[in-house]
Design the sequence.
């Protein structure tokens, strides 16, 4: 049986789509839509960036157009009117560009980029079910319109075509429709049955078919030759408009006559019937004969299924295939599998537990001290390798290229440059570098802040740059690369470099360092990350916001990463973010402090020292230095840094972990004891609690207990964070106001 | 036999919408992501109806219709053009290419 | 999230509990599970009412001493004490209480606004009251147990 799809009727499908999408599947499909929008917006940004760089060709414009068009199309199905309306205008301008009627000069490119930003905003607004920000949208709409000249006629913008009201009028009118399909009619996949069914939906119908033209005994019968003429009387619509709409695509493929028959003439419809071949179709009323249409039609009417009778070629239909032929060779997207992220997370957790389980078994076996256990340990090593392999595989599922993240930064940079009156190009490199999905998500805010900061404070105004003999246009490079087990993201500006005397002055003024302190360049640079520090002499609405680079650092540290600064006066500043390849697992040293079991990341430990009295020198009342290979290294008591009572155990009975950090060259952290090294699964403290000074996360030990993971750098530098839970409400409110 | 519909659209969302709606309406649905894949899948599946988007990479909807109409199998299959507009120019082009009808989204 | 005072009609269920010797209750839809006290891992630099964290099926869950948070003396936890695991916004937190009593079903119009007298750490955490016989039980506003948004933002 053929699907009953009426040629031009939007209603059936749309009604089903609307009804379905309004139900359970609604949210899921909508989510998929927004996910797709992300991809489309990336393509859009990429295309616009190429166009602005003068690297765009016709296909670039096409791709940009298609991205906007696809967003519009799908948004229309969800009745996201703001989005549809804006995308439509945007698309219309792009269509003009595509057709070569609009030149891509700087003014246009600027508006197109802005429009791309607004489109992204509107997608966000739709996702959050927030109203569009008309104050931002409307000016850009006007800018777009300016390129189109006269307001376009409304006709081209008919989304509500779906709600065409085909209801039967109170007083039915009769039309007699007569049509004789030609060969071309059948050739284009049309079927009289579909048309008649569509007519039947307008009101009650009577159908008759003239078969006089059919050859005697079907001699010389050609399947698609028009032998038949159909007569349909329709009682329903007041005008012939809905009928003409049904024949919209075929009115030149058949001999069509539509006549209005005043209903005052009784018996009129009887005359249209021609004997035995008459078919009665009544929709809405009696359905007795409804099936007759399909069955009788298949017998009488030619249908495209009659393969054998087909002519080989139809010369009447010359293709206009030139357009298709000149299109670019297929650029296929790699086959991908879409997986619910929750499933991957569950898998990652399970693999994490597997690895913990492995270390527990390993530990137990060692403790059991079994005889002849060499083979057993070899097997256990295999287990460990396999578990690691599975884990790497699973983690790679979550790996995503940094490209979408970097592309978002293009906009941030553009807006920051506009707001500060600076001329800046953001160049991105290594966009294909893959990092964990969580890292991509959590890097967005720190990167945004750093990009704004670099433009606000790093890159000089054009006139200043010219005076310094530089190009007026500043360059900001955002790069990603993989280096020996880490991901390195760098933000490199060619600005003035850090103003160290000024940074120092501010830090002194804010009481962050004493005026007498002897600070190395690196130490001064790192003052930028001190909580509450802000170099903004004037608080701009850009990088001001009451947060400083300390927030950036906290976010990066929470991801298990580090930030480093290098700066050359007059040449620029580089911020390097180093992140671990995988978030979920690290090698840790199990230690005890004040009766608590904790973990220190192996990566930061240079060596462990059990000091003798000769290795130690006292400095002041409570502080000690460790003498090692001729150097004096300060000793930090982990317990007291974490708020516990300082251990009265002498240092000679304890263990020192020699730590290398970004800010402090070396430092020895005193712990009560060290145990084994093992792989641990890192759990976030952030999600349910918040940031804790000196703690980067937690892990679950073999006995099910939680052990906290130490952030050695924070311990070494003694950086302070506000406690996540206020000690009492008054203090809590004080915190809020101070932020 | 369940009627088989080939839906060609480069938008994942639209493909999902069409698939959900048509499958719920009792049709069997195959989807394709662009014109090239659409024509290839049409040849593989011999669908009873084709719904195609117009603006697509690699081969647009008009190209799809032209290829189908010139093909050797089921070349008189009904082809509906999926569009967001009701512009007269688009209709003319679709008609000239051999479309059977138009489906607004 | 559902706020009892906003629901104009309909049936609501609350779990009643005792903390600091007084009656309180929590809307049942905010409760994930109830379990016995188990020892916690102590967190450094934490306020007095934050006891520490526990491992709940692989997730790290902070445990708050509800009595202490509401201004009563700290509970000295034993195995007879109970932890109510609740969802507060998108966080999961455990509340240490003395005991859990019953599930109280009331129609929404029985929920009264908290009479506003002198503000203290207890009344701030109460979002409404329900008369029960001659007595009444106080609905805990879980959101007040957490620090303000943004403060912890990393």
Sequence:
């Amino acid at each position: 049986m053929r699907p009953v799809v009426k040629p031009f009727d939007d209603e059936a499908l749309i009604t089903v789509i609307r009804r379905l999408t309004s139900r359970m599947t609604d949210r899921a499909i909508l989510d998929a839509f927004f996910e797709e929008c992300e991809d489309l917006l990336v393509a859009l940004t990429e295309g616009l960036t190429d166009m602005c760089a003068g690297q765009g060709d016709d296909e670039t414009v096409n791709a940009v157009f298609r991205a906007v068009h696809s967003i519009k199309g799908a948004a229309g199905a969800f009745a996201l009117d703001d989005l549809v309306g804006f995308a439509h205008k945007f698309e219309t301008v792009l269509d003009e560009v595509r057709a070569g009627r609009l030149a891509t000069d700087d003014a246009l490119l600027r508006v197109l980029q802005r429009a791309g930003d607004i489109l992204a905003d509107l997608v966000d607004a739709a996702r959050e079910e927030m109203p569009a920000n008309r104050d931002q949208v409307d000016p850009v709409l006007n800018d777009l319109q300016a390129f189109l000249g006269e307001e376009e006629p409304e006709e081209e913008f008919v989304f509500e075509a779906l709600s065409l009201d085909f209801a039967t009028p109170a007083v039915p009118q009769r039309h007699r429709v007569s049509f004789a399909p030609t060969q071309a009619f059948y050739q284009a996949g049309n079927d009289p049955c579909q048309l008649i069914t569509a007519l039947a939906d307008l009101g009650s119908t009577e159908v008759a078919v003239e078969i006089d033209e059919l050859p005697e005994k079907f001699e010389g019968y050609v399947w698609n030759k028009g032998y038949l003429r159909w007569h349909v009387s329709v009682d329903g619509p007041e005008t012939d408009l809905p009928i003409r709409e049904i024949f919209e695509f075929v009115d030149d493929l058949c001999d069509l006559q539509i006549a209005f028959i005043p209903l005052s003439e009784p018996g009129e419809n009887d005359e249209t019937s021609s004997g035995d071949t008459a078919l009665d179709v009544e929709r809405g009323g009696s359905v007795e004969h409804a099936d007759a249409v399909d069955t009788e039609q298949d017998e009488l009417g030619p249908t495209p299924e009659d393969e054998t009778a087909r002519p080989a070629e139809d010369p009447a239909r010359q293709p206009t295939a030139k357009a298709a032929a000149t299109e670019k060779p297929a650029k296929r997207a790699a086959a991908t599998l879409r997986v619910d992220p929750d499933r991957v997370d569950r898998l990652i957790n399970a693999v994490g537990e597997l690895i913990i389980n492995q270390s527990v078994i390993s530990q137990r076996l060692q403790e059991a001290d079994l005889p002849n256990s060499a083979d057993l340990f070899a097997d256990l090593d295999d287990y460990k390798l396999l578990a690691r392999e599975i884990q790497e595989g699973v983690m790679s599922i979550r790996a995503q290229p940094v490209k979408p993240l970097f592309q978002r930064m293009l906009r941030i940079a553009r807006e920051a440059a506009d707001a500060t009156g600076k001329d800046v190009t953001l160049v991105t490199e290594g966009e294909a570098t893959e990092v964990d999905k969580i890292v991509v998500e959590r890097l967005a805010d720190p990167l945004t802040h750093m990009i704004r900061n670099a433009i606000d404070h790093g890159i000089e105004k054009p006139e200043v740059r010219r005076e310094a003999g530089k190009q007026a246009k500043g360059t900001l490079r955002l790069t990603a690369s993989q280096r020996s087990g880490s991901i390195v993201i760098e933000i490199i500006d060619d600005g003035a470099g850090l103003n160290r005397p000024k940074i120092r002055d501010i830090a002194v003024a804010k009481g962050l360092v004493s005026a007498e302190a002897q600070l190395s360049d690196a130490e001064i640079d790192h003052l930028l990350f001190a909580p509450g520090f802000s170099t903004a002499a004037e608080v701009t609405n850009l990088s001001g916001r009451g947060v400083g680079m300390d927030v950036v650092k906290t976010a990066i540290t929470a991801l298990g990463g580090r930030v480093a600064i290098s700066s050359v006066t007059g040449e620029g500043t580089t911020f390097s973010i180093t992140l671990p390849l995988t978030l979920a697992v690290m090698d840790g040293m199990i230690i005890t402090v004040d009766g608590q079991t904790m973990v220190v990341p192996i990566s930061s430990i240079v060596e462990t020292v059990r000091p003798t009295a000769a290795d130690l020198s006292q400095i002041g009342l409570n502080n000690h230095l460790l003498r090692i290979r001729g150097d004096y290294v300060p000793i930090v008591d982990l317990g007291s840094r974490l708020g516990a009572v300082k251990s009265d155990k002498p240092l000679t009975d304890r263990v020192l972990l020699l730590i290398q950090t970004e800010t402090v060259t070396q430092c020895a952290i005193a712990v009560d004891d060290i145990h084994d090294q093992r792989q641990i699964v890192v759990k976030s403290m952030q999600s349910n609690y918040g940031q804790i000074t000196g703690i980067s996360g937690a892990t679950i030990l073999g006995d099910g207990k939680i052990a906290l993971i130490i952030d050695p750098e924070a311990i070494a530098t003694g950086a302070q964070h506000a406690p996540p839970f206020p000690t009492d409400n008054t203090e809590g409110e004080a915190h809020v106001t101070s932020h | 036999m369940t009627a088989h519909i080939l839906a060609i659209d480069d938008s994942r969302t639209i493909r999902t919408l069409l698939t959900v709606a048509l499958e719920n309406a009792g049709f069997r649905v195959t989807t394709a992501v662009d014109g090239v894949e659409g024509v290839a899948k049409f040849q593989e599946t011999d669908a009873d109806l084709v719904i195609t988007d117009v603006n697509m990479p690699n081969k647009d909807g008009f190209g799809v219709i032209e290829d189908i109409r010139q093909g050797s199998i089921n070349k008189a299959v009904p082809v509906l053009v999926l569009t967001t507009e009701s512009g007269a120019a688009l209709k003319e082009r679709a008609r000239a290419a051999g479309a059977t009808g138009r489906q607004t989204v | 999230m559902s706020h009892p005072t906003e629901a104009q009609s309909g049936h609501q269920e609350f779990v009643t509990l005792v903390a600091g010797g007084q009656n309180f209750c929590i809307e049942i839809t905010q409760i994930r599970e109830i379990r016995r006290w188990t020892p916690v891992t102590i967190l450094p630099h934490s306020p007095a009412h934050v006891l520490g964290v526990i491992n709940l099926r692989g997730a790290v869950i902070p445990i708050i001493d509800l009595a202490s948070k509401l201004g009563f003396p700290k509970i000295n936890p034993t195995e007879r004490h109970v932890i109510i695991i609740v969802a507060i916004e998108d966080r999961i937190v455990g509340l240490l209480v003395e005991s859990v009593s019953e599930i109280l079903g009331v129609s929404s119009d029985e929920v009264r606004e908290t009479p506003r007298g002198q503000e203290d750490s207890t009344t701030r955490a109460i979002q409404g009251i329900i008369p029960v016989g001659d007595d009444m039980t106080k609905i805990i506003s879980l959101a007040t147990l957490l620090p303000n948004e943004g403060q912890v933002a990393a």
